[in-house]
Amino acid sequence: MSNHDDMNPFDQMDEDDFFDEIDYQNHGGDAALDEYEMLTKVTDTSAAQARKGKDIQGIPWERLNISRERYRLTRLEQYRNFENILTSGDAVDKECKQMEKGGNYYEFFYNTRMVKPTILHFQLRNLVWATSKHDVYLVSNYSVNHWSSISGVLSEIINFAGHVAPTERHAGNLLEGFSQTQISTLAVKDKLLVAGGFQGELTCKRLDQKGVSFCTRTTHDDNAITNAIEIYDSLSGATHIIASNNDCGVREYDTERFQLLNNFQFSWPVNHTSISPDRKLMTVVGDNLDGLLVDPQNGKTVATLVGHRDYSFASAWHPNGCTFATGNQDKTCRVWDVRNLSSPVAILRGNLGATRSIRFSSDGQYMVVAEPADFVHVYSTKADYRKRQEIDFFGEISGVCLSPDDECMYIGIWDRTYASLLQYNRKHQYQYLDAYY
């Protein structure tokens, strides 16, 4: 992953923060400030309003000098995909075709602009997690917040702007804690929340208890960003944490005593890892063209994944334990089968840029792929990934997640004007009323 010290993580997003420019141009700058404030007034959008024609993000296209369709074309032409390996995306564009659109698996339900997700590093987008169809956790500036879609209440869980220190005593627990932690990544599962930071910080909180349980600095390396975190149940049934770091390390902790169980070192920065359902394999992807399948018991490489043309930042396993996917800055998500790794099962190309997040539904029917901005794709695994639903909006994506029961999908949107949290509900044969269930 690109070194935080070498580049401003907001450089890319400043140029793509399009609504500031559009609103300014269309409303004459300061001379039309009152009209600008009226246009950008915070309003939510419901499914009923969207069916009547309201833009799901509340963007008043009818008052702008550009249509949504025209701006979409402009965006597709002008958006700059970040690449570590130059022209990697162009090479892939010539190789693959986009899969068929037309799937209709999740339908828009609600967009709340009370929730304002943020992104600190432009390559790290795992900042939104749902523990139920009503409970969502996300990062907003220095805060980790909880959003209840059923009550419409936003509450702060941890504020990292000040001093955060653990209340429990464990060997290796950094009792003095941290101050002004910059949150790079987040993971939440069941009652455990884990946040990673730019200086290798790892902060663990049990959501059903007060205070923070554990703080540690995984590494003191100068380039120490915690790039990704996975929470999973080990073979013994105990809950474990895996942290992927920019110092080329992958570290495993238990959550009973928060002890370091494994520390595997690789030859390049690790941007993401994921554990197979049977706990026998682990994907390891990062600042290398090839990905790895690794034995999580000893850290030894089992197989090498060859095909991507740039660095990878996402991976996920299908519940069947045979299929997994990797996401790359070459604008592709590649689906693999462990029984034959000579070539991918499918190569899925994005519209704008890199694959930054991948999620499989718990029933295995869908794979959700998020680009850096504007597009989330829901692929049907039953249709061999040849059919997809394209969810189209405007703004940088801070994260995408499915609720554990697959009923809800949440998308965090970062934008100075239209930051929000999108909710989509799984489409069934029968229709729900426009009320919470």
Return residue spans where pLDDT drops below 50 for at least 5 consecutive residues: 4-18, 23-29
Q: Mean pLDDT across all residues, rounded?
A: 90
Relevant CATH superfamily: YVTN repeat-like/Quinoprotein amine dehydrogenase
Give me the Rg, rounded. Answer: 21 Å
Number of domains: 1
Overall geometry comes to: globular
Q: In the CATH classification, which architecture applies?
A: 7 Propeller
Notable features of this structure?
437 residues; mainly beta; globular; ribonucleoprotein
Describe this entry's structure for a reader:
Helix content is 10%, strand content 40%. It has helices spanning 11-15, 18-26, 33-39, 47-51, 68-78, 88-95; strands spanning 45-46, 100-101, 106-112, 128-130, 135-140, 143-148, 153-159, 163-164, 178-179, 183-189, 192-197, 201-206, 214-217, 226-233, 239-245, 249-254, 260-265, 270-275, 282-286, 291-294, 301-305, 312-317, 323-328, 332-337, 346-349, 357-360, 366-370, 373-380, 387-402, 408-414, 420-426. With 437 residues, the chain is mainly beta. It has a single domain, classed as Methylamine Dehydrogenase, Chain H. Strands 1, 2, 3, 26, 27, 28, 29, 30 and 31 form a nine-stranded mixed beta sheet that branches. A four-stranded antiparallel beta sheet has the order 4-5-6-7, with no helix packed on it. Pfam families: WD40. One of its GO terms (cellular component) is ribonucleoprotein complex.
